[in-house]
Amino acid sequence: xxxxxxxxxxKIAIVTGGxxxxxxxxxxxxIEAGATVIITGRREHKLEEAVEKLGKNxxxxxxxxxxxxxxxxxxxxxxxxxxxxxxxxNNAGVNMKKPLTEVTDEEFNDxxxxxxxxxFSLTREVAKKMLPRGKGSIINITSMAAMYGITDVTxxxxxxxxxxxxxxxxxxxxxxxxxxxxxxxxxxIDSPMLREAFDSDPAREKRVMDRTPMNxxxxxxxxxxxxxxLASDAAKFVTGVNLPVDGGNSIGF
Length: 253
What we know:
This protein is an alpha/beta fold and 253 residues long. It has nine helices and seven strands. It has one domain: Rossmann fold (3-Layer(aba) Sandwich), CATH 3.40.50.720. Helix 5 links the parallel strand 4 and strand 5. Helix 2 packs across helix 9, helix 5 runs parallel beside helix 6 and helix 7 packs across helix 8. The chain is globular. It comes from Gracilimonas mengyeensis.
């Protein structure tokens, strides 16, 4: 009974930015739970490599979420080739660490274009397909930057805070029609990039660990497990939440 609750058997999922990082981890967990997953991204060689590792239930379509006119076609292709979309994970995103006085309007807009506008446009197109069927699960990826202030990431923080607000608004608009909308806020997840950042800034590592009650970094599969939960029937009465998977970082002091 418990295993059935978390099953994604016969579900069709799209994971944007699914070729690397957290998106790859989420895709792998979805496949292990029984789903067929279509990953998207701009770099075909990364998508090819990912699909080779993930096996026969993984497929890819090269797509850039900022090219809005391609998104209806993307959604139509997935539904035509694989079947009705049950799950959308809006994972694709870009970050930029830079003092705010040096951030150009173009750079700021580029972050918003990918992290907010692209997310909205794809979600709208998927919702058009989900609404007549009266079911679906949409999962957005927010950030600790939407929970508290972090230096030198004004554009990124603005985008992820917008995604948090959009998650709540979409949940209000769609949940009565059977479509749940939730978000995951990853904490500090162990990766070569984060380790490199900590090595070059030990004070930052100390700040992170001092405010993380569990006193350790997260793993990619922690985020993936949360995504499986939110996508599955185990979360059938959960909508509009922003789930921190952060070892307590967002509530630590």
